[in-house]
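Weekend entry, working from home. Most of the wet-lab plans are on hold until the incubator is repaired, so I used the time to fold the two sequences that have been sitting in the queue since the last round of cloning. Logging both here for the record. First:
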Amino acid sequence: MHSAGSSDPAVYNNGKLLYVHLSDPPRAGPATIVAFENKIPIFLERSLRRGVQPLMNYLFAVLALLFSSLSWCQSAGNRTDMSVDARKVRTTAAGSLSPQVQAGSWLEKVQAQPSNADGWLNYFLWNSRIKNASGQASSQTIITQAQEHIAGTPQFFLMQYLASAHRDSAALFRAFDRASDKGWLYPYMVQYSILSGNRRELLAYCKALDGINTINKILYEYNYNILMSADSNATVYARGLNDLVPMAVLQQVHGVRADIKLRYYDGVITDKSNAYLALSLGKDVLAQYPTASCTGLLVRLDAANGFEEMRRHMENDMKLDELAQVERLPADDGQLYRNYLPALVLMYRYYRPLDAVKAARTKALIEKIAGATGVPADKLPEE
């Protein structure tokens, strides 16, 4: 396998998202998808007898909100040093993993130790994740400040490459050539190989990355399911090190869905036929495609029958064995698994009047994900 709301599109309390209310076109009647901070969205107001298809064109927006707005569930404990290596974080949100908090923490480090090349790179990376912040330093300003202290280091050249919007390939290769430990640069090399269309280098870098950092079973299954959320010979657009790169490794090293074309999303898609977007592109990107439909862990741009495609992928193509069997999901990957919730919720509502066994199995997965991502089981809504 796979309450009547306010008219406001979103309701917040002390800065936290309580629920999202989305209405269908008037001819379809009202529909609500509720995304609670402490209650997962398992109630859809519409009766399935009237169909779930009208909901599909709006589901991606809620999915993006789940991905980007809910609080991070990782606890910092009693650590005094709150700095987190940006290269090891797959998703960020509030609390200690707020980009503003992390950028400030790494800035303090480089001010105390200006020769700290990793510190400058982390300050640069976290700062680049801040959106529309007053007084935010520009990427070029950080590079200028860092040049006096770490010029010639792999970290400095990588900053130059990233600041060029991936155009300055010479800077990337200088970073790679000068790095004594090349492992942390392999993801960037995989990403660039996709950008440049160099299939030979893509295979080589994917093998090298997999050789030193084999993807764990849960993440393997997650990225496998992303690829399985697309039809044959599809084009999938992504751009991050935590979506584009693992999908490439699965293709190149493990032979998963070699028919799919992976593309770096640069804001322009000229051919939307059989084209999909990765959820990690975020709500700002997804909102540019209001007719798109969720197909599992992807969003399809030309979908005419999104629910049926999603059901087909969930029932026939995707694997949820590891997700179902593991007792505890890795905390560091918690927010990734929120992306399963909208599709699982629709499947649960679909199964409930038809197949009690499948409905119970699906609900169990929903509860497991809810618990792993900071939503206790005793906080779930009653049937």
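Second, folded right after the first finished:
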Amino acid sequence: MASAEPYWRYSIPVSVIWAVIYVIVLVWGLVGNTIVASVIIRTKKCATDYFLLNLVVADLMVLIFCLPATLISNLITRKSFHFVPKFPAHCAAFSVFVCMQKHSKSECESKYLLVKLHWLQIQFCC
């Protein structure tokens, strides 16, 4: 008879160290990105601010969705939960997709505004 695979990948002290490190990164990222977002929201002045806010939102999505799932997949053996190995990859792909959609939208809006401003300058100068 084959022996059953252990539930935890590492010993309990090592798992606790991993969890503490992940929690520190999660809290540090949430606090830092929240501070950056609040400053950007209060002082929106140019298109770069929107770009930075977009990066903050994307980073928060990765922190909230991917980091806990990655911790679980690092601590628990693969055969314990069948969905865990794929879940962090799906979360990361979703975060990247949303970020790229927001970048595309902001890029299209900025190009539209540049063309519109250029057209208005041509009309008023002539």
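Plan for Monday: verify the second prediction. The chain is about 80% helix and 0% strand.
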